[in-house]
Amino acid sequence: MFGFVFAIIILLLIIFLILSGLYVVKQQTVAIVERFGKYQRTSTSGINFKIPFGVDVIAARIQLRVLQSEIVVETKTQDNVFVTMNVATQYRVNEENVTDAYYKLMHPEAQIKSYIEDALRSSVPKLTLDELFEKKDEIALEVQKQVAEEMSTYGYIIVKTLITKVEPDAEVKQSMNEINAAQRKRVAAQELAEADKIKIVTAAEAEAEKDRLHGVGIAQQRKAIVDGLAESIQEIKSANVGMTEEQIMAILLTNQYLDTLNTFATQGNQTLFLPNTPNGIEDIRSQMLSALKADKGSSNPF
Fold this sequence. Notes:
three-stranded antiparallel β-sheet, membrane, Band7/mec-2_domain
């Protein structure tokens, strides 16, 4: 009976020792195990065993996931403008160098911040404010390379460095906004002036084309009248009525004059001043013949 109880006690003790020595490491995490204060091994994810009663101790659990640190750096550009830069740095522990990450560096985030501040304060003063905005991605890549080289000796990998914000001094920012607003207003004024110019030129061209077409229409109308008169004269001549060319022209012009008066009368609301003497029509006919004779030297439609 005593032997059975003793065996149960021994069994329970063994179970207790085993259970007390078991520990679990989560995914994307490693555990630093020390034995009597000295590094013993690095345990990966899953169930692991250590010697209990303080012989083996889990000194630290280190995450292997990517971590992000937000850093604010104030520096000055080449044109003496103070800027505040927000920098986001993503980093993680190198799985092949976990011991250095734990034993060589106490505060990795503070160390990364120091390296980034030093890199930015040596790069940004070489650039103007405009160049800083244009080349911020190139600066971030350069800073990443410098910091990655330094942090690799401590077992850390710099995954990505981003300059998320560049904020100039408030007065400088206000001045830049005013300059941009003035430039935009000037461009807008130039565009409006150009639009007005196009309108004026287009209207002038349209008016000139209108006048040209009007002149062409009048010329064609006059030519048609002259051609009609010439044709009528030729027809009367061919009829052998014994009339001279001047007499024929007088008759045709008188008919044309009367037709014109009839046209004015049918249009309504027209005021026309005519000679009131008995010889008024004869005077008009004589004037028309004189005008035709004057032009006859240059062009004779008959």
